[in-house]
Amino acid sequence: xSKDSVLVINCGSSSLKFAVINPQTEEESISGIAERxxxxxxxxxxxxxxxxxxxxxxxxGHEGSIEALVGILRExxxxxxxxxxxxxxxxxxxxxxxxxxxxxxxxxxxxxxxxLAPLHNPAHLLGIRACIKNFPGLPQSVVFDTAYHQTMxxxxxxxxxxxxxxxxxxxxxxxxxxxxYRYVSKTAADMLGLDYNNSAILVAHLGxxxxxxxxxxxxxxxxxxxLTPLEGLVMGTRCGDIDANVFSFLNKQCGYSLDEITQLLNxxxxxxxxSGLDNDCRVLxxxxxxxxxxxxxxxxxxxxxxAKKLAGFAxxxxxxxxxxxxxxxxxxxxVIRKNVLNRLAIFGFDIDDTANMETFRGKSGVIxxxxxxxxxxxxxxxxxxxxxxxxALVKG
Length: 396
Ligand code: ADP
Prior knowledge:
Layout: E1 5-11, E2 16-21, E3 28-35, E4 42-48, E5 51-58, H1 61-75, E6 82-89, E7 100-101, H2 104-112, H3 121-134, E8 140-144, H4 154-157, H5 163-169, H6 178-192, E9 200-206, E10 210-216, E11 219-223, H7 246-254, H8 258-267, H9 270-275, H10 281-289, H11 293-317, E12 322-326, H12 327-332, H13 334-343, H14 353-358, E13 365-366, E14 375-377, H15 382-394
Helix pairs in contact: 1-3, 10-11, 11-13
Bound molecules: adenosine-5'-diphosphate.
């Protein structure tokens, strides 16, 4: 059996997602997740040949789950197909502008960025170190969520606070979802026959975490997320843009501590906080269709903020070759797509209701009428992008 696939690892603070992907054929031979890695009730579940399996791991932690993964890969004769490992890493600060092969210096660099993503980067490092130990000799790479946005100009990434805070502490906007933007914008350009190096593409990545990006000639020039994923759009549980004085207001008026306010704005706000119902867009759409006014208001605010951001980005780009929807909501919600496009009619969007209704569940396609400014859906695939980057790095 030839070495034709990449093991993609996405390590979170208490979970570890994995997949073995052939970057050429896009075939995914196995995928799965190890969960509850903090505590002693960890388990790993995986899907292979359409069948689902689960195994209890006790107090395995990240390292134990990688050991279990090695066993699963061996049992299924997949070890000999793995040519390299690609790790998703959330934050690369200003240090990392593209994907790179792992060296001691790179590990140190990820550690140096840990203060920018204190929940994520240390977890990624656990996964990387466990893989170095359990897959000796196999080349490994890291693919950063932030790297794609390092092309943003200073006018997009600087906050209007004392400049020394940027110089001394790296306080600036970094943006997230970069791997998705890179994949989705290139795929859209290819589907439409656009010259990627001479294109103007808007992408709305709408999942539980949501952001938008302005992409000029294949490069990110602006995005909605900032120092952290809290900034920008209304999300499942995050508030998005807010007056920074809300912190002192909530402290003085309501007696909340710094930690409580951070928790409130990150975990209890957004669609969940506004609607009082749920953070899941499907639940809100269902409720709104039955006349739940606050659910409808929540969806309208979500779309209002998104449309406002996209309109600003369109002005930055100077033209729109395509507006692309992706992520769980972007790919599946015809309701949200229609609501947003109606608000952007000034840019010449004319929605094709039939195409919009039919384009869902991983299906990509154009959802506007001929002659309209193009809006479309592209199903994102960050894992495939990580596999492609890793293979390209390994093959030099
Ligand atoms: P994450 O940010 O966690 O990666 P996803 O991109 O997987 O999120 O998107 C998850 C979200 O997609 C869910 O919270 C749900 O709101 C939304 N979603 C999924 N299917 C639909 C659907 N059919 N209609 C509306 N929203 C949907």
